[in-house]
Amino acid sequence: MWPLLEQSIGSGLSTIPIAVSQSWFVLPMLLRDRQSDNYGIKRFLLDRKLVVEPAATCNPLESFANESTSGEWSEEGNRLLNHKEYEEAIMAFDNAGDVYMAAVAAAYQSREAARDVPAPETRRHREAFLSAASSFERCAEMSKSAEEETTHYATAAWCYTKIKYHQDVVRTFKLANMFTDAASYSFDNNLLDTAVSIIKKHEAEVDSQTTDCIKEVARLSYLESKELE
Length: 229
Hints:
The protein has 229 residues and is mostly helical. Helix content is 63%, strand content 5%. A two-stranded antiparallel sheet has the order 1-2.
């Protein structure tokens, strides 16, 4: 019986069988400890593909210490969010106890899921973007700054544009104080009365080119309607 090479390389290891001169003996898997006295033997086995390198982890949080502080979890959550690892970011923010940022990560995950729903699947497509838009509106209500509030309402508006919920697009643009966008969107989608209303109430906050264009079309439309009478 051939002796186990396990004894010369290290004990307690996973092993794989190979045949040598029609005899069977056992080779150990490569140890992770590269400071081992037996590293030369292991390197020899690895180079000849007689052992398998352990697979790297796929979970970004797997190697993150369980003893991490809430601040460290928040930092990791932001890093994951920036890399669009939304599910892992939610987990990190949950561990940090940050309800707001967990909701933000969930909203972006919801938007990503909505993008993956084919437009021809009308009902699922609509419901997915409605869910995403609602999530961003909730984030806006929870937001910690005016800048974040604007970003969330603007993203909600974008979601509504994907399903042509015109009134909700205008409403969320207005909540974001993006009155030029609200007026332009209304004008581009044949909601002239809505565009004019925005101009009247927020003319100072709408850029002059948009204002002049809407006023001119509204004037021509008014003249045409008077002629038809």
